[in-house]
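Recall the central idea of this unit: under ordinary conditions, the amino acid sequence of a chain determines the structure it adopts. In this exercise we apply that idea directly, starting from the sequence alone.
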Amino acid sequence: MNILIVGGGELGSLIAEQLVHENHNITVIEKSEKQAKRLSNSLDALVITGSGTNVSVLLKANVEKANLFLALSNNDNVNIVSCGLVKKISQATTIAKVENYNHYFLNPLNNPADFGIDEIVATKQLSINKIVDLISEPAAMEHIHFIRENVKIIGTVISEDFSGNGMMLKDITRQNKIWQKVRIIAVKKDHEVAIPDGNDILHTGDKLYIIGKSNTLKEVINLYFASRVKIRNVIIIGGNRIGREFAKIQVKNGKKVIIIEEDEKVCARLSEELDNVLIIHGSGTNQTVLSDLDMENSFVVCVTENDEHNIISAVLAKKNNAYKAICNISNIAISSIISQVQEIDSVFSTESLALAEIMKYCRKGDILSITPVPYIDAETIKIKISEKISILGKPLNEVKFPKGMIIGAIIRSNHVIIPHGDDEIQLNDIVIIFVLPESKKQVEKIFA
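Accordingly, the structure predicted from this sequence is:
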């Protein structure tokens, strides 16, 4: 596929690198000469210095031959305008990254299609949705949705009062038939990640990743992992759009909401815009500010534009007895490292969320999506079985799958199957696979 990307920043360069690896023909337009030179040296792609809103630059990049156009600059205006221009001079599918979606498209009369945009990735909204997920089930540290299939993966940490502590997995799953409706696809012990079998023993501090229907997972959480703590306060460190919109949602849900913001002018605007929200002018890294708050049983979200600020604020919040501390990191490269800090309950990256969303539109053939699993070096792959492959019609317990993969779910005619040994894969099934890096090539061969 011929793919043209406008914007060679962190997100654009990561996507370009991934797409080159998947054998797409990539061209990148980047405004910064310094960044364009760096990309040219590091990527097996054509890199052009210029603006995505310049028609001559688009033509130089052979836009008329592009199958897919990704507008990923850090300027919403550039992304929207460039999509409109591309639609006029090519047949490419256009996808625009738009941070402030409501600024342009809140009015129903303004339709993205009117601007030549086929799909929009609203990055800030992705982050807001992520935090809403985390507070809706505070016992879970991770949520990965497969919305059309009504399936998701949750990650949760085993606490001291988990009834299965010290037990083998096969004995735990015999306790309740609910375990037959979900599947444990990975266990992380310290820094080691493994796909478990029935003989694995679970201990306090282990992290479990479980796949199943959304409502069934909710039941599992309530039965085995729910905390007795009732969240009293929501404390948001950072009064930017993410913090502001999340505050509005939590006020509607009846929560007591506090925003801590360093910029005095932003505090004034927040006071005018938000009702029933306490605005504190100060820093989340200031121990005095945090000490003045009743942080016990509070849910703390750190969403400033400064990664270091967010990390320190989250750690201090936990030191001050916060129940949960959630941290937003813009630097994807360090998010996996920060996730190992014990004091921080969940780490997410807006760029990572956008990366996973955009890559869904870049897949060839039967691979519908490849989604990185946060905190661990693993992926979920969603594949449609549209051609006959060697494992069709065979019971899964008779197939020699590589050690580092597991089939988490099979979707057949809108029916979700959590597979067991006697189940088979059939033509036109959608299969969700969890795979560790060492087994990815073998998985590709099996489903090729």
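The chain has 15 helices and 22 strands.
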